[in-house]
Amino acid sequence: MAHHSTILSQILRLVPRHDFKRLESEHDGKRRSDAMSRWSQFVSMAIAQLCGRSSLRDIEATLTSQQHLGYHLGCAPAKRSTLSRANQNLDYRFYESLFSKLYALCQNRPGKHRFRFKGKLFSLDASLLDVSLKVFPQANYNNRKAAFKLHVGLDHDGLIPAFAAITRGKTGDQTQAKLIHSCW
Predict the structure, then answer these.
(1) Which pLDDT tens digit goes with each residue over 67-77?
(2) The whole model's pTM is what?
(3) What are the sequence ranges of the domains in the chain?
């Protein structure tokens, strides 16, 4: 029988596993052997993002329906309570470090566009992420709505995101642009 890689496994192959393991040991240290692994959490959340899943129950149903693929991806099946606990308790700075590592890898691959500029060209985009006002009272956007804002900067040299920041919904784009501009 011929073996064919899924598109998801091809995408996940872009993440260097040895760097992933090194970052995992740096940020998490020694964890219980029966705890959900970072890789299982990462694969679960990647599937949720790529499939447009909106709840833990929905993510669990998707993972359960494709259990045979999880084995080949190297991740354990995830229950919604386990995934919720992992998302709540594990340090988010792991993903910041992973983003930095992947960005450094992507910077080494030049883009294939014809336009050249004297200086570096970046685009800034901001999107509102609606959240529950009861769960996130600190993200008060107005009296009836809570939101965070995701600021993403696109580096036009490689057409890849150069930075991402999450702020409160009322934070202006210019405020974030000035902070980012000072870094370069």
Answers:
(1) 777 777 888 87
(2) 0.65
(3) 7-101, 118-183
